[in-house]
Every structure is written in C-alpha cells, then in structure tokens.
Amino acid sequence: MARRRYVPWTLRYWRYLWRFKLTPGGRLLFWSVLLTAAGLATVIIPVYQVFCVLLSTYLIVWLVNLLFRPSLLTKGQLPHRVTAGDEVAGEFQLTNVSWRPAYDLMLWVISLPKSLRLKSPDLAIPRLGPGQSATLPLVIETRRRGVYELPDLRPHSTFPFNLMRGGATRHPLGVLLVVPRFHRLTEIDVPAGLRYQPGGVALSSHVGESPEYIGNREYIPGEPARRLDFRSWARLARPVVREFHEEYYCRIALILDTYIPRRGGRYSDLLWGTAPPEGYPELESAISLAASVADSLAATEHLIDIFAAGPELYVFRAGRQIAHFDNVLEILASVEACHVNPFEKVGPAVAEELHSITTAICIFLDWDASRETMVRRIIEAGCQLKLIIVRDGETSLPLPSDLSDVTLLTPEAITSGGVDYL
Amino acid sequence: MNVSARPSTEAPYGFERSRSLQRWLALFLLCLEIGATGYLGKTVVFSLVLMSVTVAGALSPLRFRPSRQRSYDLIAGLGILFSVKYLVAPDNLRYVGLLPSQQIAFTVSQFFLALQAAQFFIDRPDHRMPVYFPALGVGALVCAAIVEVTAQEREIFQLLCAGFAALSAAFYDASRRFSPTRGRRSVGRPVAAIITLVLVSIAGWTTATVLHRYEKQMDRFVMQFLDPRAEGGEIGFSDEVRLGSVSLQKSTAADEIALRVQCPSPPTYLRGGAFDVYHDQQWSSSSSTRVLRKENRPHVLPEAVHGGNCFRISNLRTPSANRYTIWPSRSLSRNLFTPRDVRYLEAATELPMVDASGILRAEDTVPGAPYSVYTDDAFDQDTLNASDEQKQKLSTPPDWAASDPEIREIADRIFQGKTEAREKIGAVINWFRTRGRYSLEVKVPDGLLEDSVQWFLKENPPAHCEFFASATVVLLRMAGVHCRYVTGFLITEQNPYGGSWTARNRDAHAWVEAWDGTSWIVIETTPSEGIPTAAGIGTWQTLKEYVVGRTQRIRAVWQQRRFGLIGDLVVLLLTTPFGLAYLLLLTLIGILISRRRRLLRIERMSGRSTDTLSPEVVQLQSAVNRLDKAVRHFTGRRSPAETLHSFASRLNSVAAGSSELQAAVSWYRRYSMLRYAATRSGEEVDALEEEAKGLVRSLKRLRRNRLVVKRG
Known about the structure:
- The complex is a heterodimer of chains A (422) and B (712).
- Chain A is an alpha/beta fold and 422 residues long.
- Chain A is built from ten helices and 20 strands.
- With 712 residues, chain B is α+β, with helices and mostly antiparallel strands.
- Helices cover 51% and strands 12% of the residues of chain B.
- The radius of gyration of chain B is 44 Å and the shape is flat.
- Chains A and B meet through helix 2, helix 3, strand 2, strand 3 and strand 4 of A and helix 5, helix 6, strand 1 and helix 7 of B.
- Strand 6 of chain A pairs parallel with strand 1 (177-178) of chain B.
C-alpha cells in the first residue's frame, strides 16, 4: 500500500476550511474580513465599523454552526459506470440520529475531480426532526471519461445563512467509471489477411479455427516432448509425434496516439494546469473513434490488439471472445495523454508484435517524422495499414502521397456522430 | 451502448420562490448600500438616479444574456465611465484632507454600486443573482467609508453596517433551494436565525464601540507586545533630553541588556549624548555636526568581527589602537555609544555624523547591528577645540542661576579662593560629596515656580544623577569653567564566561565633562549609591546572557563571512573548554539516544517490553546471553533468525571431540524446551542457569587451552 504523504496540520486545517467549512458565500466573507481589517489602522474613518460587523458575523455564524452541527446517518449509492457527458444521479437518505432537530441539510463532495461537477449543490432540507429521514438527490455531471475514485460524500448543515458547513458525517461513494462516448460505425473497411499465430488456440477462444490433427511422424530431436504420442511409441518402439495443422487468423492492431505536446516548457503544467476539465478535444475524439472501431471489430472474428502509445505502451488484446467490449471501454477510459513524444520509445515494442499482425489501424493526432517512421516500419513488416488522423487543422508535416488509405477527421466530426463509415 | 443516469433535481424544490426572495433581498441590500454611501458622501443626485435604475432593473422584465466577453466589456465600460466622471468632476468636498487618494476611493465605491445595479439587468442561466453580489457591496462600503465622520454619522453608519450584514446573511440564506416541508411548519429555525442576527448586530456594535473608545490603549498594548523595549528606548540619548529621561531609561526594564562591549579594558563611561544648552528643564545640543566620509581601513587597526565601512574621526597618535566592539540592543539603534576620543569607526552605515563633542550618530544602521570604534592611549591635550560661540555656550549658566542671589551665594561659597579650573572642579565634587543624597525618585513640589535644578540646588533633596550632573554644570559655568552635560552608560559589569562587558538599562547614567585647561575630564558628582555598579547576577542568567551574546555574534559573523564561519566554529569547538564540553555533551546525548532506540527496536521486535517479562524468563535470557558470548568463539554468532535447535545442530557439527561443546549443545536443547514450555519451576531455571555458568567457565578454559596449543 502506498504511504500517504505527510501534510502539516496547518495546511490540513486550511484545506478543510477552504474546501469544506466555508461555502462560496463564506469564502467571500472571509476575504471581506481580511480586506476590511486594514480599517483597524485608525478609527478616524469608519472602515473599522464594516470590519467589526463582518468579523462578528463570521465568528457568530461559526459558533452557531458548531452548535447546530448535525449527526446524520446516510444511506444510498451512485451508479458505478456512466458514459462521458451523461449525468450520474443517486438518491441519498439522511436520518437524523441526534436528539435535536437538524436544519438546512445539504450534500457536498470535497475535492471532486475537475472533470466531474456537482450539479445543483444548493438543494437543501430545511428541517429534519430527531429520528426523521428525508432524501436528497446527488447529481454529478461527467465532462470527461476516466476512472475516478470519488471522495466521500459529506452531508452537512449550512445553518445559519449558508455561510459555513458543519457536520462530520461521511459516506463513501466508491469508484466511478466514466467510459468514452462513441458513435457506432455502420461499416468499417479493414484490409484483411491471415497470418500465422504462434500462440495458436491459446490465444483465441473456443470459437473459430481449432487446430486440426493431420497424422503422426517420427520424432526429431529438439521437438517439444508434449507432442509425443506415447501409445504409438509403445507400439512402434520408437518416438513418434503427433502433427497438427497450424493456425492462421486475421489479427488487427489498433494503435492509438496519445501524444499531446505541452503548450509551454517542462513546468508549464504549473502555470496552465494539467488537462482541461473536458480533456484535450483531439485526444478525446481519437479515443471515441477507437471505441467505435473496437465496437465494429468486436462483431467480427478478428483478434484486436490495442496499443495505446503513451509514456508506456499499453497493450490490450480483445476479439474472438478473449475479452468483452466492455473491457475495451474500461481500458480506453483510463488512457491518459502523454506529453513527451512516445513513438521512439514504443516503436520497437510495437515492431516486436508486427510479425503476427495482419492489419494496423493507426489513429494519430498529427503527422510528423516520428509517426511516419512508425508507419513505414509497419508497412515494411508486411502489414496492411489504415491511417486515421484526428486533427483540427494542418498536420505538422504534409501527408505522404504514397499512402493510399489515409483519412483526416476533425474532432467535431467524430463527437457530433458525423463519422459513419471508415 | 452508452450508460446513462437521469438527474432528478427538478420540482418539488422551491426554485421559483427562493429565486424571487433572493432577488428582493439583493434589491434591499443595494438600496441600503446606496443610502449608506450617499449619506457619507452627501451625494443625493447620484444616489437617487442609481436607486431608480436599480428598482427599474429589479421590477422590469428587461434582461440581457451577455456572453462572457460581453460581461467583461460591461465591467470595462463602467470602469471607463467612472474614470471619465472622476476626471471631469473629481471634487467631493467630503473626501479631502485625510489621504491623497480619497477622491478615487469614492469614485470606486460608485463604480461598485453601478456594477451591482447592472446585475439586475443580466439574465443568468439559473436566474439567480451572483454569489459575489454582497462582496461588491463590501467594496462599495469600504471605499465610501474612507472619510472623516462626526459622532452622529458614525452611529448611523454603524446601524447601516448592521443592516448590511443582516441583509447579506439573508441573501445567502435564500441562495439555497429547499424541499417542501410537510405538516406543521417549525418555528425553531427562523427564531434561531433571528437570534443569530441580533447577536451579530450586538457583537458588531459592541466591538466597534470598544475599538473606538479604547483605540489608544489598544495601540499601546499592541506596540508593547510587539516590542516591549521600544518605548523609552532612546529617550535619554536623543537630540533633546528632559530631566528624568535617563532615570526613566534606568527604571524601564532595568535588567534588560542595553549594550554588550568587547574591549581589552573596562569601558566605564560610554557616551550617547553630550549637551551644552539648558533651558526649561531640558538639555539640548547646539553644536554642529559633520558627515564622516568612508576611508580605507588602516592596517594598524585590529580586524573587526563584523562587516561595515571604515570612517576616520581623527588621526591615530600611537602606532597601535584599542578596539571597542559594541553590540547595542535593538532599541538603541540610532545612537553610537562610544568612549571619548574615538579615532576610527567601523560600522554598517553609509553616512555617520559626528558633532563637536565627539558624539557619533548614524540614522541608517540596522537595529541591533554591531559596530567597532578605535581609540589610542594618547590624550587630546591641545586646545578646547571649539568655536567662540561654542565656548560661550559651554561656559554660560542659565539665566535663573545668574539672577538668583541664593544660587549666587552657594557658588561664591564653593569657589571661594579657587582660581584654577582644576581647583574649582575639585571644590564642586567635594561640595556634592558632603551633602548629596541619592534617590531615583525626585519629589518635586507641586506648583513649583522655579526651575527644578534651581530648587535642587537650594533645597538639596534626594535626587538622581541627572540633577547632580545638571547642578554641577550650572555651578561650574557660574565659575567660568567650560563644561557639558553627558548621558550614556557606565559599564562595570563583566560576564565571566565570555569576558564581554555588559550595560543594562539600569546602568544608564548622566555625568559632566569639563575642560580643566588641558583636556576634557569626567566629573562624577552623583553619590556613590547612585553610580551604576556591577550587580550580582545569577550564574544561570549570566550563562544565558553569554549564550545569547555568542549567538548574536555568530549571526553577525555569518552575515559577513558565510561558510568561512563553519571552519571557525569547528576550531572553536575543538580548542575551547566550552567547545569540548559541548562536544562531550552531544556525544553523551547521541549515545543515550542510540541506546534508547536500540532498546525500543528490540522491544518492538520481540513484541513486548523487558519490563513485562517474568523473572524466570529474564533469568533464562541472561543465562543464554552469557553462554552465547562464550560459544561464539567456536561457532560464530547466533544470528537472530536462527532457531535454538538449528544453532545447537551447528554447534554440534564443530563439537566433535570436545565434551564441553557437547555439553553446550545439550544445554541449548534443554534451554529451548524449558524456555518455551507451558510451565517451568524455579528450581529448573536455577539449575539451568548454574549449569550455564559452569559451561561458560569450562568453555573459557577450553579456548585458552586451544590458544596455547596453537601458539605452541
């Protein structure tokens, strides 16, 4: 288990104050108190009066909020899986287990990932008597795919005046899987072929070309012992092996490009932040398109290898009932953008697999020298190629004229469902 | 294929009702703000126009839904509008006199109000007023309140502030959407909310009133808290000193250290101020000052431990110089306390000044920063070294002294038959020695019409050094002797640990310097009980002061030498008794911590503390430890991971031909059985322990024999 990083209590308390204790109105009150504290310099001008009133409001509301801190029992849960762009909603039952009534009960989730947004956090129950129960809805808007470990739900009271939150009750929300949104393709034209699969039947499922027994022959030293036919050996008094017909499948590599160059230098994330809440449009569209392609190929008898070219090469094999399409969506949900050009690093790893790949479907975000090198390597390995570039604008290098099956798509075309055929 | 979950946050939540209430509260809030700013600024037209616009915006269905860009344009447009308004008509008679930017503040306040009014015309997706609406009001009130107010205005504004707080709280309260309540409505919530509002108003009012009434006391309290020694720090040594200021310095935090001095001989009198004019119970200096210029440091000066520039006051008259390194307290930053006849100054200052009396001052020194001064052993024996005007002032008594026959008579009596300056000085000293009585508190009669020094000379009451010094100057000047009144510290206390000289606040002193015809000499007429002497300070206090002084010195050296200091510190640790003692102490602490950690680790590994073990187990443990030590010469150490049986097997493999080792193997096996047995008797444990002792002895013999054989 990973060790939790030590955070000083002052910082922890500040986080608690800022993220939970103070509502948006409370935060403004806090800043106003600090601003008007300058009025303490003199009593000649009456700025100090504004300060006194605001400070009194802050302190007394804090005290009253502490006095009316509720003690609640929470029941309910959220769905664990949702498609990006949809809302996930759940009803939570709050029961007042205290001897006194609880006022202005609301729900809040501290530090929700920025791609998720709490919708309608201003819903409140005005009063809950001792032992009484009531339900509050919790709606989370998902703006981007991903696997999110949701922070605990914090039922609380904002009495009085919706300036501060009080209450120590927590309710775990678990993990939320937001799978990428995609549109089903009506048809996909995959340049097909067959290639020998060294793994044979172990790679595939129980459906399709099973190995076929041809006959026996003499054992050649060095062959695997598991193919020995011991009955025939006993009968003939010399080692004999069984011979099978080898296997040939159509195996498709879906190579997904995740390289998004940084806007600034190495530490630009500190300035610009990491990915925007909605994600990078090109990458999200490419992932959506990858899901569409995987969905179309899932209906066929192809083996699909998904290569997500990031900081490390993610390889996932699906098709022929090895894995369900839902698993593909889960993989695509967790793919993250890579800010360092990964092709030089992952190129050799992909090349290792090319000898058994029939067709490579490359979904790229740009066309440059490193990507061209990879494509050339695929073609040289004898694989069929289908190249799709998702980009809003010109590519870094002009597209080569010798590649025939190249499609250039805009993110809008993909997200709006305008791509039916590939 | 997409997974979806529908939201369910629509009705029955009171959306429309809360929206409407929030809007009304925003309207009232803005009207109150406009009223408050209009009242303070006495601007009727603007307030009426803005209020009309606000009401129109709140009531009419006219709404705009601007994009984010248009919203920024709206703010910028209003900003430009009010900037133009300020440029065209900047003067508001109320907003002048206090601060240069008062006018702008009032315009900014109007801008905030207009921005709030504009919110009523904006159609938002959730049909609500923005959460920052009251914060804009705070800005408007603060900017409008930068104006001097009357008592009535202050009270009315306080009332308006309380109203603002109440409406803002209600605004945020209405920013939620409540689920409809079933059954009987509860009155508890509104009652509690109203009580809270009342409490807020009372607390706000009380706090503001207390703050207004006790501002000065609180200011003083805060300043005293921030720097307890700031008050009265330099009052005895500034350009003008009143009688009583040195005694105040003496009595304020009397035991606090004012100066630390490193010098080869006792520094005694360190001067902080010298004064020639006495008027209305106040001494002042009329001598001109000159600015000292930076010079290269002569090689004959001993090197100072701190950095800074070197300044020449006069030429060295001997080949060597004495160095006085002075570490002042933070409250004595402006004065440079020095002995008389200083030749060179070395300090972190750019423009030090020196006056005709040789008093050094520097306005730009860092509080608490050290400085060094250099003197030589030669006396200035040439001339009085002063202008005619200056000489006149140094020998002129106050008018009341010359005109008072009683004083005149005292002076005649003292100086009868004395012609030389030295004789006159001696006569004055003798006169005060025979009749002077010391007291830090002087009981000057109420309604005294004459000068208090005049009264002191006539009545001879118990008094402190300032009275004695002032009276001495008056008498000497009546006899035509050039003299001046000097304040500073008389240092006689030496810290035994570091050898530095210490001046505390109670060592502040006033004395006289007189020209005896050949040189300036110090005249002390204060009775002996009033002269600062080394007081008995406890050992721990002395040690603490030594450590503080060293730390201060190290810090100054660090600022100058940075990493070169580390080498010096190492040398210091290895060459001084304190350093060696410190190293020894550190080593001891290290050993203790190490042993403690080891013990804790052992306890953690064994899962229990040795304190909780039964006596039999401790006895057995002791026996096995003893035998382990004896056996390790034959088999090596028994590792913690090795079980007793496996160790016994290993021992057995080397025990061939040795009955002692065979016995040890047997002992370990029996020990293992007994140690982990469910029950054990004391006799068995004792027997095993005795056997272990015997084995240890025999194993030692065996080892010795083997060694003898080996050597043989």
